[in-house]
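Here we describe the complex-level prediction in full. Unlike the single-chain runs in Section 2.1, the four entities below were treated as one system.
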Amino acid sequence: MALEHAILVSLLEKPGSGYELARRFDRSIGYFWTATHQQIYRVLRRMDGDGLLEVREVAQQGRPDKKEYSVAAPGRAALTAWLHEPVEPESIRHELAVKIRGAAFDEPSALISEVERHREAHDDRLRHYLAGERRDFGGPDAPRPLDVGQELQHAVLRGGIAFERMTVAWLDDVLDTLRRLRAARPGSRD
Amino acid sequence: MALEHAILVSLLEKPGSGYELARRFDRSIGYFWTATHQQIYRVLRRMDGDGLLEVREVAQQGRPDKKEYSVAAPGRAALTAWLHEPVEPESIRHELAVKIRGAAFDEPSALISEVERHREAHDDRLRHYLAGERRDFGGPDAPRPLDVGQELQHAVLRGGIAFERMTVAWLDDVLDTLRRLRAARPGSRD
DNA sequence: GCTTGCATGTAAGAGGTTACATGATTCG
DNA sequence: CGAATCATGTAACCTCTTACATGCAAGC
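The structure predicted for the assembly as a whole is:
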C-alpha cells in the first residue's frame, strides 16, 4: 500500500492531477518509488472513493481539463496513522546481481558491456541528483535555515546520492573482477 | 521474470527441492532477490512444465520425500539467452524514504525510533554479511585463487556489504537531521 | 505433549506491467 | 504535416503476498 502513501505525501507537498503525479513519479518522488500513470489513475479513483481525497475540476485553455486532487482530512489521518506504525526493513531486488552470479555458467566477460551500461546509467543519475541538490538546496552543505519539508527532502536526496555513488563504485569493482577473470583465462573471447 | 532466472542460477550452483530453494532465498540468493515458498513452488511447476528443469523424487529417512530439481539443457539455454539480452537498470523502492518525506506533515521526531530500528536492522545485516565473507572467502582480500563462481559470488556479496554500509551511514545522517529539527523546535514532544 | 523443522501445496486478493485507445494543442 | 505534450482512461495479464491446510519426525 505504499503507493497510496507516496501519493498522499506528494499531494500534501502540492496538489495536482493524475498526469502531474505521473510526472513526479518519473522524477523527485520516483527516485524511491515508481508508478505508471495507469496505476496512479486507478489508485486515485479508489482513494477518492474512500474519501481520502478531494477533487476539483479545473478548466484550462489550450489544454484538456484536468482533475486536481488534494488531500482531505481522512487522507491526512491515514498518512499519520501509517507514519506511526512500523514498516519492515525491505530487502533490495537487484536483477543485475542475479546476472552476475549467473555469469559463472556462461562467459563472464560477455557481461562486461552490460555492466558498463548500468554503471553509466547510475553515474548519469548521480550527476542528475547532484545538479538537483545544487539547484534546490544550494549544495551538500545547505545555507540554513530551510523549512522542515525541505530539510527532509534534502535528507532523502542525500540518500539517493549515496546510493548511486555506492552503486557506481561497486560496479567498477565488478568490472575489475570480470576483467581479471578474462585475463586469467586467455582462451575466452569478449 | 527474474525469479525464474534466479532459480536457474541457484539450481545450477546446486540442485535442490522447493523447500531448499525457499531457504536459500532467505539467505545467500535472498540478499538481492526474495521469494516465498508459495511462489517458488508455483514457478517450479511452471518451469518443469516448460521443460526447463529435471525432477528426481528422492526418498529420505526420518524426513518427508522431496523432489530434487536440477536444470535441464533448455533451462541452461534460457539462462544464457537472458544473460545476453540487456535488462533495464532498476530504480529502488524505499518505503522508509516515503515516510521520511511524509514526516514533514506530522511530528518529525516521532520517526526517530522507527529510523533507529531500521538502522539496527541494516547494521545486523552488515555484520552478518561480513561474517559470511570471512567464512566463505577469507575476508575482503581473499587469498587467490578462487574459482570463477566464487569470485562472482564474492563480488555480489561485496555489493551487499557496500549497500548495507551506505544505508547505515545514511540513516545516521537522517537521525542527525531529525534530532536537529527537534532541537530547533523545543515545543515538540518525542 | 508442544514446538520446531522438513516438505508440499491451494486459494484469494492486492499490486504492478503492458498494450490499446482517444482527442486536443503546440512546436518545429 | 508529423511529433510531442497534456490529459484520462480500459483491459488483460502477470507477479507477489497473505492466509489457510496437511502430515510426519525429532527434540525438549
